Structure formats: C-alpha cells, structure tokens
Amino acid sequence: MKFAKVISGLTVALMLSATGAWSQATDTAGKSAEIVSTKPDSGREQTFYLANSIQGNDANEILVAMRNMLDPHIRIYLVSSQNAIVVQASPDQLELAQKLIHDLDRPKKTYRLVYTITEMDGGKSVGTEHFSMVVVTGQKTNLKQGSKVPVLTGSYDPGSSKEQTQYTYLDVGMNFAATLDEFANGVRLQSKVEQSSIADDKTGVIPQAPIVRQCVLEGTAFLGLGKPLMLGSVDIPGSTRHLDIGVVMELVQ
After folding, report:
1. How far apart are CA 33 and CA 206, in angstroms?
2. Do strands 241-251 and 44-49 pair parallel, antiparallel, or not at all (unpaired)?
3. 43, HSE (Cβ side, Cα atoms, 13 Å)
4. CA–CA separation, 119 vs 196, rounded Å?
C-alpha cells in the first residue's frame, strides 16, 4: 500500500512537471514570435499631387523610384486621372516619400530653338531662312511649313456618266522635329530636319504624278546657351549650291 502511494506521487509530479514545461515552451514561442515579426504598421494614407510631371511616363518613373526606395511593405498607387500618387505608410516613410516627390517632380525648362537654313553658292550666301520653335524638355515638338500637293492615285467609272478620281496629298516644304533632354554636361538635342520640293520632271507612270525631291538630316547633338551649332551641310543636286543647316538655343524660362 505504501509502495502504491509512492508511485502515485511520482506520477502526479511528472504530470505537473510536464505541464510546467509545456507552459514555458508556449510562453517562449510567443516571445520568439514577437521578436521575429517585422510587419510594419499600416500607418496612415496621404495623397501627393504631381505639379510638373505632365506626361504619363514622368509619373511612372517617379512611381518606380518610390517603390525602389521606400519600404517594400507599404502601399503605393498611381492615379493617372488625377496625376497623383497615393501612399499608405508610417509617418517616417511618408516623410521620405514627400522628399522623393519634391526632388523628382521638378519643373521642366523651356527653350527656344532657332533653325537657320542658308543657301550657299560658291562661298556666297544666296538666301537665308529662320525657323523658330519653343521646346519643353522631355517633349517632342514639330514644326511644318509648306504646301499640300494633290497627287492623283487612281480613277474608276462605277457605271455612271461621270468618272470618279482619287487623290492623296503630300506635305511639301520644311519639316522640323526636336526633342531636348537636360544632362549634367549640357542639353541634348535630338533633331530631324527635312526639306522636300516638287521637281519639274514627271514620273510617267501615273499621269500628273510629280517627282518629290527630299533631303533629311537627322541626328543628336549637345547644345550650349547662345552658341550656334552647325548641324550639317547638304548639296543641291544639279547645281553648285548647297544648304547649311544650323541651330541656336535660348532659355525661355
């Protein structure tokens, strides 16, 4: 009987010891979970309106920069219709987001480009034309001057008493396309200058179909304020004359 009581006491002691060990393990696991948990507080929501990023590509570039620089757990959305970025994050992350937008959403500068087309004959200037256009950095600007020339493309008789004719129109004259981008060492100009004219000869393939003479100068150059730059020189076929194409840049604002 005494031996049975001893066995019973040992059993109860083992059960109490196991219960205490399980409780301690549970508490330890809870404390460990609190230590390794790094999920940030959702924080508050704030909307940042972009004042200078007009094109959609500009807003997307700012959005990508913010997602790369801020905590990956925060929420960032671009609302294109409102030109705004919505951020849900902690106060310190919101402060960093505001600084990034302030640094990246900068006003774009405006420049005036003056193209000069000079016709030369034997080293003597025959005539000069100036073409001026205002260009905002990061945006493409086009300038056209000339005429639309009708060209007969076909005719048919649908069974009526009148013959039907079809025409298309060609742009003939001067055509300029320019894009400016700012860099640390200057302003880069991506430019295309195109000149077209109607020749006296005809093709002979289609009646009244003209021959269009075309000259295209396309390339990239770095400009300085107020410093003229010669983009190129083109000979005029069948003559001793040539065209010198130059450009100068001025700051508007």
Report:
1. 84
2. unpaired
3. 19
4. 15
For residue 100, the tally of other CB atoms under 10 A from its CB is 18
Domain ranges within the chain, ordered by starting residue: 44-104, 110-251
Listed residue (196, 224, 201) closest to 211, CA to CA: 201
Residues of the chain with pLDDT under 50: 1-7, 10-16, 18-19, 21-40
Question: In the sheet that 84-89 helps form, which strands lie side by side, from edge to edge?
Answer: 44-49, 84-89, 75-79
**Two tokens at 247?**
């450009």
- pLDDT single digits (tens) 20-38: 544 443 443 333 333 333 4
The pTM of this model reads 0.65
Determine the Cα–Cα distance for residues 143 and 133; give it in Å rounded to an integer: 7
CA distances in angstroms from 231 to 47, 86, 120, listed in the order given: 46, 45, 15
Question: What is the architecture, at CATH level 2, of domain 44-104?
Answer: 2-Layer Sandwich (3.30)
Q: Which runs of consecutive H residues, i.e. helices, occur in 47-142?
A: 56-69, 91-104
Q: Give the H or E element holding residue 26.
A: helix 2-36
Residue found by looking up tokens 């004219």 in the block: 197
- CA distances for 108 relative to 43, 105, 136, 139, angstroms: 33, 9, 7, 10
The C-alpha angle with vertex 139 and arms to 137 and 144, in degrees rounded to 5, equals 115
User: For residue 242, with 0-12 CB atoms within 10 Å meaning exposed, 13-18 middle and 19 or more buried, which class applies?
Assistant: middle
Q: Report phi then psi at 251, rounded to 5.
A: -85, 125
